[in-house]
Design brief:
The structure holds two protein chains of two kinds.
Chain A (H helix, E strand, L loop, with lengths): L2 H13 L20 H15 L5 H5 L4 H12 L1
Helix pairs in contact in A: 1-2, 1-4
Chain B lengths: L1 E5 L5 H13 L6 H4 L5 H14 L11 E6 L2 E10 L8 H10 L4 H10 L15 E8 L8 H16 L5 E7 L3 H9 L3 E7 L13 E8 L1
Parallel strand pairs in B: 4-5
Antiparallel strand pairs in B: 1-2, 2-3, 3-4, 5-7, 6-7
The chains are: A mainly alpha, B alpha+beta.
Chain lengths: 77, 217
């Protein structure tokens, strides 16, 4: 499973909706249910699953799920 | 004589008081503490770090606040910003990022446990609208229409930087009838109410209802 697919599964779980309903191109703030509490849960879950730690400036540059996948891959490389 | 001005770093202690009193909405329930299993002192310390970070475009930013000063003392504050202006990141994301980077692992675990009691209470903030958040006037200076003057100053500023701005929005807890009446007095209209039915919500927040009020500009 590639990073994007893993992320969509994880995020869908946090948002309690099917992964196929998630559009990886939409800005995260515009995804229904993605409020500040859920954002904290999602970022924490990503850090745990991928064993990485984001910096504030990195996480502030996130736009959509694709950008999260790119950031995760960069942190893992 | 009151002077209205933009907040600066020296106002941080007053802004923290503003945020805490507004979050409590006249009760002793501080969601920033209860949901993260933190003491009020820990919240104050985290808010200091957050405000010192200075991230524009959300309620946790010094530059979002206008304050009223009386004889050199800050006595009132109102936060306001244009949501996601010119493609900026949504304020909910900025707020969450700031919280994330100031809380401990234990606090992150606490919010994972507790978020189910407060989910879906807040309204999504509409891009390109003026968002008003955190209104507080020190008790000795109430009754002077300072909050109204500060909101009017936010509207004037928003119009200067974004002349085609269409509306201002504010979200208040359902128990805050005084605030609702004050907003109605300056033209805000209650548009929607979100109500949570979980019995434990009131262990964490001042009220189980939030109201969205709007003012067409």
């Amino acid at each position: 499973m590639n990073t994007l697919t893993q992320l969509k599964t994880l995020i869908a779980g946090e948002l309690k909706k099917p992964a196929e309903e998630l559009d990886e191109n939409i800005e995260v703030g515009n995804i229904s249910g993605w409020d500040s509490m859920t954002h904290i849960a999602i970022i924490t879950a990503i850090e745990e699953q991928f064993d990485i730690k984001f910096k504030l400036r990195e996480i502030n540059n996130i736009t959509n799920i694709i950008s999260i996948a790119e950031l995760v891959e960069k942190k893992q490389s | 004589m009151y002077k209205i001005r933009k907040a600066t770093e020296t106002d941080i202690p007053f802004l923290i008081e503003t945020i805490i009193q507004a979050e409590k909405s006249g009760t002793d329930k501080l969601g920033l503490a209860t949901l993260f299993d933190l003491s009020e002192d820990e919240v104050r310390s985290n808010l200091t770090a957050i405000l010192e970070e200075e991230m524009e475009g959300c309620e946790f930013s010094v530059t979002s606040f206008l304050v009223a000063e009386y004889e050199g003392e800050t006595v009132a504050a109102v936060g306001g910003w244009i949501e996601a202006f010119e493609g900026a990141t949504a304020s909910a994301t900025l707020r969450a990022n700031l919280i994330l980077f100031t809380i401990s692992t234990a606090a992150r675990e606490a919010i994972q446990r507790n978020k189910k009691y407060v989910e879906n209470l807040n309204f999504d903030r509409e891009p390109d609208t003026l968002q008003i958040e955190y209104v507080y006037v020190a008790s000795a200076h109430r009754g002077q229409q300072l909050a109204g003057q500060l909101i009017a100053a936010h509207i004037k500023h928003a119009r200067q930087i974004f002349p085609s701005i269409k509306k201002a929005q504010v979200q208040i807890f359902g128990n805050n009838e005084k605030a609702e009446k004050a907003y109605q007095k300056i033209g805000f209209v209650t548009q929607k109410t979100n109500t949570l039915t979980h019995a434990d919500t009131l262990n964490f927040l001042p009220h189980h209802e939030k109201k969205l009020m709007e003012l067409h500009l």
